[in-house]
Amino acid sequence: MKWFGRRFRCFQSTFLRSEWLERVMKPLQAVDGWDEMVEPSQDEFSVAMKHGAGHYADRPVTLLVRDPDHRLGRRPRLALRRQGRTPDTVFRSFLIDGRGRGRFYGWMPVQLQAMTLLVDDATANNKAGIEPQITMRRMSLIEVAVLIALRRTLILLQIISLFLAGNRKGAEFRFVRQCDSLSAPDYQDWIEAQALAALHANRDDPHNWPRRPHILVSIDGRDSAAAAETRMSLAAQTWRDFREMPAADVMMMVNSSEALDDPLWMRLPAGMRLAPNALERLARPFSLSADVAVVYSDEDHIDRRGRRLNPFFKPAWNEPLAVSGWLSLEGALFRLIDIPRDVCLERTSGANIALAVGRTQAGRILHLPEVLLHSGPSCRRRAECATITQPKRERPAVSVIIPTRDRADLLEACLKGLFEHTAPADLDVLVIDNESVEPATLALFSRYEQAGLIRRIPLLGAFNFSRACNIGVDAAQNDLILLLNNDVEPIGPYWLEQLAGELDDPTVGAVGNLLLFPDGFTQHGGVTLGAGTVARHSFHFLDPQRQGDKGLLGQRRDMSAVTAACLLTRKELWRRLGGMDEEKLTVAFNDVDYCLKVREAGFRIVWTPAAAMLHRESVSRGADDTPQKLQRFAGEERAMHERWSDTLKADPYYNPNLSLIAEEFVLEAYPRSLAPRSSV
């Protein structure tokens, strides 16, 4: 995308003139005409790329679909085959409406080799009918920019502000992500398509389940009209083995050991409505396994006109988010015998009840990623949790490992941040020097070494981040190990105390933090598995002040991985897990690999905004755009999929109804696995 800057400046000047209206009103002309597809097979359509795959690689394209008899189904997927990459095929999805019309927009992979359109078996018409008409073409950047301006005006302004601030990489990244977001379905259309797919889903008959648990439902609230709405939704349930009972009576029943075969319990705020199959879907995991303690689902709102909106797609069990109240669990289904006897069912929020259960059996809390709860206008939710106390350890003893090569300006700012702008700590700073030669850097080393503030350890040969970290850990004097990039600087003095405090919890194995670019945009808000085929920084280049993160950038939370640009862990754990992979993961994904090993060993990864720092991302190393670097990256990508393929497909902290291609909280037309999931 080296041509992005020139074309984007051209767009800005055009957009600000009145002629842009004329561009929008005219039919968008193809750059090189429409390319027809070949005849379909039974379950897929191969795209005939008459210009060759290279013509579409790393470019925006659009597909226009006319399928009046729904031979493709409502949620077709585009399979994009990539040459020399792992996985060799990535997928995009979009919706076709009830009239059989659909349009896909997306940015094609760099190594595009072939395209195939896959039929959505769950919603397709298998009877004979009119063959679909499917055409495709490449789009211009002007077209994409105009579409983003019309559909996501505020986001386009954020992209322009990134560009004007000199953050060209961020502007390019968000522009491409917004191009991929143009195919995101409207929520109403998405509901219709998923309901149709569920109607034809091959689901088991509840009468064949090993057991049929009885459910007790308590309606919370004194608004009789709101309670009546909730009761109406209960009356429409497909699962009939339930009865309503006040929470106080449920407690009395439990304490008196009334004869009832292992009941389940749900508390609903008055005004909350259940989907007709909600009790059945939530009860199923309990029926199939005695190891399930809690099951909760996604939810949305219903306005006064009966329209569903504002979906809340939740992560799998995330203790810090439950503590803060961000993760609401009203409407969850609990196994009564697993709730501690000292918990008051009347006064305790759903999240706090789940916390009481999760302290000893977090793996038994399941998230069902289906929208089964609907909050009506009269629904009044109780406050979930109390004030949060951020963990903190005063004057921690930490060994800091900083890989570097020249760039004395960056390293000096990093070291000053450690020694002059950080609250008192017992620091053991190891600088892993990868053949620095610049006089300024050597003078900086000498000054800090003579002062006894750092230890310099040479790293010969090509840059190998994993080897640098392993060497540093072997030489570290303290149990707490901080991996720190040379282009990271503190914003406030207490960041290290906050990070170290997290590791006072023996269940936590590694900690990461909020990293910001110098312009204030987000560099690291955690890591999302599966995004960008392996993993991608969450909320990358997002403005924290614009609320596109739904408040998560201000929430301490569990994550699947965090970046090693600033990662705190324990030396003992590092050695037990074998550290970082020096052979197959020399530069990229070594931090993700380490974090996944930490989680596999039974520890949590915590991300915190309380230790925010400044990061000038990869300034000292440069871009990965040479043939050698691209080949190395492809090898690291392959190694991660060979090792963690299934894990990368199912990040427990990211909802499978949301896109892994576009930005966060963008709907996926064809969701990934909707099976109940645990975070353990």
Description:
- The protein is an alpha+beta fold and 680 residues long.
- The chain has three domains: 4-196, Jelly Rolls (Sandwich); 204-375, Spore Coat Polysaccharide Biosynthesis Protein SpsA, Chain A (Alpha-Beta Complex), CATH 3.90.550; 397-648, Alpha-Beta Complex (Spore Coat Polysaccharide Biosynthesis Protein SpsA, Chain A).
- It has 18 helices and 28 strands.
- The strands form five sheets. Strands 17, 18, 19, 20, 21, 22, 23, 26, 27 and 28 form a ten-stranded mixed sheet that branches. Strands 9, 10, 11, 12, 13, 14, 15 and 16 form an eight-stranded mixed sheet that branches.
- Strand 9 (215-220), helix 7 and strand 10 (242-244) form a beta-alpha-beta unit.
- Helix 1 (4-15) crosses helix 3 and helix 12 (408-420) packs parallel to helix 13 (439-450).
- It is globular and about 80 Å long.
Topology:
Layout (H helix, E strand, L loop, with lengths): L3 H12 L3 H7 L9 E2 L7 E3 L13 E7 L10 E6 L6 E5 L7 E7 L4 E7 L14 E6 L2 H11 L1 H12 L3 H14 L5 H13 L15 E6 L3 H12 L6 E3 L2 H9 L8 E6 L2 E3 L3 H11 L5 E9 L5 E5 L6 H6 L8 E3 L14 H12 L3 E11 L21 E8 L3 H13 L5 E8 L5 H12 L3 E5 L6 H11 L4 E5 L3 E3 L4 H8 L5 E9 L5 E3 L2 E3 L5 E3 L19 E3 L6 E5 H7 L12 H11 L3 E12 L11 H22 L32
Parallel strand pairs: 9-10, 9-11, 13-16, 17-18, 17-20, 18-19, 22-28
Antiparallel strand pairs: 1-8, 2-7, 3-6, 3-8, 4-5, 4-7, 11-15, 12-16, 13-14, 13-15, 20-27, 21-28, 22-23, 22-27, 24-25, 26-28
What form results from the Cα inertia axes? globular
* Fraction in beta strands: 15-25%
Integer count of domains? 3
Question: What would CATH call the class of the largest domain?
Answer: Alpha Beta
Distance between the termini: 40 Å
Compute the number of strand runs: 28
| Name of the CATH architecture of the largest domain | Alpha-Beta Complex
- Count of alpha/pi helices: 18
What is the name of the CATH superfamily of the largest domain?
Spore Coat Polysaccharide Biosynthesis Protein SpsA, Chain A
Would you identify the regions where 5 or more consecutive residues have pLDDT less than 50? 1-41
Q: How confident is the prediction overall: mean pLDDT?
A: 89
